[in-house]
Amino acid sequence: MGPNGSTMLEPLRQGLPPIDPATVSNSASCALPPRYEAVRGARKFTSQTLSNWDLADRFDDVALVVSELVTNALRHAVPAGTDPAATTEHEEGLNPPVRLHLMRWASRLVCAVRDPSQASPEARKDEEDFAAESGRGLFLVESFSDGWGWHPLAGTLQGKVVWALFRLGPE
How far is CA 59 from the centre of its chain? Predict the structure, then answer.
């Protein structure tokens, strides 16, 4: 999806000052349907991508973070009151609202998940169950990655990107 992809990641890249976007050596992305089974697909995509990049030894930590980010994104991608299992491909349209990006620099790996919600990825006090779950997920992301953040999408794209960074080997 060419130009859309680079535009979508611009806020993410701007939020990572130590990394020059021009030096990215590998990147891969996949669209995820707004159904909770998409977490399994995201883990499989992450496994294949890390294997291709000779980073299979980092799979456990990266997959845990990817699972949490995708789960949170799916919460926002699936409209309230609908059954995610009943969503059809027709309803999903040609542009699934959740997309996983993996980017590798010489000494960094970044996983980023786009979702259609403008809300910041923080625990919301008005929904106790959601707040507890969301807080736990973000705690895991913080514990297993070397940093994380988020940015609203610019231009015509609605939503936000939430990213987590992993250091690879010596600086």
Answer: 15
